[in-house]
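cron nightly-structures :: item 1 of 1
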Amino acid sequence: MEEFSKRLISSIIGVPLILTAIYLGGPVYLLLIEIIIIAGLAEFLSLANISQRSLKLASFAAALLLSLLIYLNNGQNQSFHHNPADLLTTIFLTVIILITVFSRTTVISWQQTALAFTGVFYLSWTLSYLLLIREEFPLGREYTYLIFLVIWAVDIAAYILGKRFGKNKMFPAISPHKTWEGAGSGILAGLITGSAVKFFLLPQKPWLPTLGLILAITIIAQLSDLAESSLKRNFDSKDSGGLIPGHGGILDRFDSFILTGPLVYYLIKWML
């Protein structure tokens, strides 16, 4: 009950802030996504036990700049050699390799370097698609509301109904508490919520492809959640952090968006 109360209080504070940032878009929404990326990366590096200051600073700078460049460059369809995000990736790769090679105060292993590089792209590259969806599409704000509200509905239903009725474990080796009953409840809640969002915010879009998009969100979000559970299991940790009372860390709260953002971006382009 205490954990539920903490979750409720965190949601009462956090949800209106996020919905307002989505509504305003522009620099306000950019700031929200940047905070999620940097806080999530800090948790990732902590889970991976990466403490070397130079490697952490390079990772934070790269994550911040990568998402910023993607945001500033959105919709311009520049070629590979003229895309500033590609240039930054090359610079970052070079810098962290040189940090690894010439580090004197502490020995930085290539395994740590690989993990830092993975962390930057696992968070900055993927979550930047949430910026593209909001700013690039004519109905970007409405699609962004759709993504957030559907994922929240999936998470809430899977958590509450999975706890109440869940008997058949999905992947106990990865996440012992996730059940097929919870996953099915999440999909159903996501479809209902998404249909309501479509009715009120996207009435001009055809029902069939929009329902296909909503269904894809409900499935991809849960796979993305499982991916983060696998990450925590790999590092033998229950939560990614304790920043959000009742929810754990930033990664625990936004894990469902990590794979959903990129895939939904292209689904919107292809389907709608």
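cron nightly-structures :: done
Residues 264 and 270 are 10 Å apart (CA to CA).
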